[in-house]
Amino acid sequence: MNDQEAASKLYPPGPGLQRASKALEDEQAVVLGLPEAARNARYAEFDGLQRDTGMPPTVTKRLMDLDHRVEVAAARKRTDDVDHQAEAEARRSEVRALYGAKEGEALIARFQKYVQQHATLRELLADPRIGNDRDVVHGLIEHVRDINYR
C-alpha cells in the first residue's frame, strides 16, 4: 500500500470542505473582487488538495482560511512585523519538545519531504504566514506521523 492509499483510508474524502465564514466570503467578494464562480473554484482546489494529500479536513480548512486571509491582507496592502525566522524556529522547538529531540527532528524531516511531494501544498507553505502557522505545522506533523510517511 502506498502513502496515498494509506492516507485515504485514514481520512476518506468527505462531502467537501466547510465553506469559509460569511465575513471572509464577503471580503473575498469585495476586497479581492472574486465572483462566486471564482470562489467556488478556489474551494474545489482545496477539496482536491485534501483528496490528493489525505490531510485531515481541519488542516485543509486552516490552510484555506490562511490563504484567503493572506490574499486579503495583500490586497489591503497590510504587512506584518513578525519575525518569520523566529516563528519557524519556535515551531521546530515545539515539535522537538513534544516528541523529543531525535524523533522531533526526524518528524520535521519527514514533514519537509512530504510537503515536497505535493506541489500545491509546497506553494502554500512557502508563504511564512501560512507555513509557520502552529495549527498547520502541528496538524501536518501529526498527519505524517499517522500515515507513517517515510
Q: Any descriptors?
A:
globular, single chain, 9 helices, 150 residues
Structural class: mainly alpha
- The residue ranges in which pLDDT falls below 50 over 5 or more consecutive positions are 10-15
**Biggest sheet, in brief?**
none
Helicity, in percent?
A: over 70%
Explain how this protein is built.
By secondary structure, the chain is mainly alpha-helical. The protein has one domain. It contains 9 helices and no strands. It has helices spanning 3-10, 22-30, 36-53, 57-75, 84-99, 101-116, 119-125, 128-131, 134-146. Helix 4 runs antiparallel to helix 9 (134-146) and helix 6 (101-116) packs across helix 9 (134-146). The longest helix is centred in the middle third of the chain and has 19 residues, at 57-75. Mean pLDDT is 86; it is low at 10-15.
Q: What does the secondary structure layout of this molecule look like, with pairings?
A:
Layout: H1 3-10, H2 22-30, H3 36-53, H4 57-75, H5 84-99, H6 101-116, H7 119-125, H8 128-131, H9 134-146
Helix pairs in contact: 3-4, 4-9, 5-6, 6-9
What can be said about this structure in brief?
With 150 residues, this protein is mainly alpha-helical. Helices cover 73% and strands 0% of the residues. The chain has one domain.
